[in-house]
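Model the whole thing, not chain by chain.
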Amino acid sequence: MRARVNLPRTARAGEVVTVKTLVAHPMETGYGRDVRGAVIPRHIITDFTCTYAGREVFRAAFRPAVAANPFLEFHLRATVSGPVTFHWRTDRGEETTVERTIEVT
Amino acid sequence: MTVLLVLLIAAPLSGSEFLNPETRALQDDPFENPGYLWVDRGAALWSQAGCARCHAPSEVVASSFPRYDETSAALIDLSGRINRCRALDDAPTWGYEEEPLLALTAFLLNRERGTPTEPALDPRAEPFRQAGEAFFRQRRGQLDLSCAHCHDALAGMRLRGERISQGQVNGFPTYRLLWGTLASTHRMFRWCNEAVRSEPFPPGSPEYVNLEYFLRHRGRGLRIETPAVRR
């Protein structure tokens, strides 16, 4: 899974910053059929978590109705400088992690 | 309304002029536009595959394809050109909708985003441009429609819930929301051919390469928008 993350590099203490993530995934629902009529097995991202300085700050559970290449936008309050980790997991156990650092001034 | 007024003087208009505002906003946001997932991958492929050994980045003008090719005495499109390089490198060639090929073409065309389409003026390519135009004007399929019936005569009008575009190719490869993936011009041609219930041609076929070449001429001056987003 290829992922893109948009997070400011620096923020003032207490500032609310916008985080955007985009991940490449077909999000196959399990209800589709191929040209021969056979069911295409379900293959979706099921979990997304974001941790900030070791603490979980955002979590999302995805369902089959979520479109391909899911986009998420959420907000974080910048408190301390530290790593922000983004983690996606699929129903087949595939995982992708992206790590960024935010500098709080 | 502006769209319709401009159409009266028959200037080329990008497909993005016919989009609803939400789709347009998605295309214009360099982060939210999902096409950039492919552009990023293409940038990685460009360095991995060592393209820069032979090609200076400034030397490649992706939007000048399809071009006349002396080896085959026919037109060659960007995908065909990339696959020829692959063959020279003894690397397996890529199929038309295979992700690496989409990614690399998207990356190369994206570097020219904002520059006007300037197809090469090559007298040897003229017969192929004419063949492409003939294809564009040829009625086909059960619905007995040519490309020109909708994309010339009725552009700007509505077809069910959608506005009919001019069928320009300046935004390709394009992220199509309906398919949830990036798609080549040839996949779009196939889809259009099927929509009028005619037998589509294989991707990369001379018919489609000629058509694409004609469309580049028809859309001369339109700014490259790769990766565009379509419904």
